[in-house]
Amino acid sequence: YWERKGVPGPKPWPIIGNIGSHLIGKMTMGEAIGEIYRKFEGYPFAGLFRATKPVLLIRDPDMLHRVLVKDFKSFAQNEFVINKETDPIFGRNPFILRGQEWKETRTMLTPGMTSGKMKNMYPILREISKNMVKYIENHPTATTDGIETRALTKRLTLDNVAKAAFGIDGKAFERYDDISEFNKLADEFLTPGTWTSYIFYLATVFPAILRCRFVKFVRPEVEQQLIEIVSDVVSYRRKNNIQANDYLQFLMELAKDRNLADIEITSHAATLFIDGYETSSAVLTFLLLSLAQNPEYQEKIRNDIRKYEKENDGELTYEAVHEMPWLNACLYESLRYRPAADFTVKECTEPFEYTPTNPDFKTITVKLNPGDVVLTPMAYFSKDARYFENPEKFMPERMMSKESMDKSIFFPFSDGPRGCIGQRLGRMMIKLATTYILKNFELSVSPKLQQPITYLPYNFMNEIRGGAWIRYKKISD
Ligand code: HEM
User: CATH assignment of 20-474, given 3.90.190.20, 1.20.140.10, 3.40.50.300, 1.10.630.10?
Assistant: First the structure.
């Protein structure tokens, strides 16, 4: 396929294509594709086979900018196709929707994510971060084996989205030995080892699987439970004329204006789960781990915290959490150093042609047609010494400058019209939690952390093998 188009690329094997090392469990798909990225130094793109599907890996930042921003209409879609009738919850997610329906849904939901709305939600989420501090303080192994931090951060982001999107208490911090009922329900989505996670993973290797009508992402019982939860809260609020400062309130107002059915409110609320709960927990986990491994940056963030608290009568305001320079720099460096996912996938929707003009790349041309698929090199640019000096080192100072935020090189939330709609909420949850953790605890790596760090091979997102074990030592007042 790629040879006929004059596109360079590694020789594929039948059926397994170029991801054999991943399929046998030696590495993640992101790592297998990363090896190809490095082999094709000097080329603006490389044509490879993700199993049987030909996909084009972008290597040139100018091409990336065209795909995500300038020529967006040629790549207006993500690759997944999910039928709304079969999967009413997943099928209405903006990430999945296509064409006019995507545009309308995104336009409708975006006002629910403004900074004004985030500011309203801030006090609710701050209380949850405080609950997490109490949970860690009383955790039986916090200072010995430590706490498996992916599980800890999932409790946090779960409680956040339960409160913000469903208007209920997720009760995630009530027990040490088990997770709450709502946590179990939320885990039905993308948590490794669940039905949905397997389907999601399989769909990334063999997207054709989604054309089978019997493939359903969310089990009918889970769908029903979620609809019941939302319907109960919505009717309780309507009956008692309750106005809350959360995302559900925003959805209820939308429902009134646009006559939305309960299933539509439920699916838009569930978008926070599907797109926000696991991603934000994964990013927070990687940030805390990087801070545990590099304690000097913990102290820099604590200095920021003290300064901002002093300026605001001991309070940590919404503005303070957003402004703290070292917290921002550590978060962005962590997104670069250990991203939750290595690439994203875009489908060609209108014919597209690209020839690089940057002399750093060979002058070759690719012509793509609707249905062709490209991969964005999210983690590969981040680890390329051409763009980041000492890429294997965690160095937040590099994120203090504006240049490091060039979105054609560093785009953890993607870019252009299909960029992350929930990034404000994601960043707020992560920064708020990090602030409260560092205010109260010194973090260090637990002996239970398997080093060097490797990832489980078959996950949709990067997941640390053996768990992210961190020790939390209380800082005395
Ligand atoms: C730190 C946490 C997060 C990260 C790193 C992240 C990252 C991303 C990325 C890279 C994309 C583009 C995916 C692609 O092009 O294939 C995306 C899309 C999206 N994200 Fe996030 N995200 C985060 C949190 C959230 C949260 C909290 C929400 C809650 C609503 C959310 C909702 C979405 C939606 C709806 C899309 C699809 C947008 C569209 O296609 O129009 N994300 N996110």
Answer: 1.10.630.10
Residue showing tokens 């030909």: 54
Residue boundaries of the structural domains of the chain: 20-474
Q: Which residue has the tokens 């993973």?
A: 201
Atom of ligand 1 nearest to the CA of 97: 40
Q: Flag whether pLDDT at 192 surpasses 60.
A: no
Residue 278: partners with Cβ closer than 8 Å, 6 or more residues away: 154, 157, 189, 190, 191, 461
Q: Give CA–CA dist 345/376, Å, rounded.
A: 6
> For the residues of 14-49, what is the DSSP string, one character each?
TTTBT-HHHHTTSS-HHHHHHHHHHHTTT-SEEEEE
Task: Note the pLDDT tens digit of each residue in 255-288.
Answer: 989 998 888 888 898 888 788 888 999 999 999 9
Residue nearest to atom 11 of ligand 1 (CA): 420
Residue 414 in contact with ligand 1 by CB distance below 6 A:
yes
Single out the residue of 333, 307, 329, 332 nearest to residue 320, CA to CA. 307
From the list 1, 15, 90, the residue with the least C-alpha distance to 50 is: 15
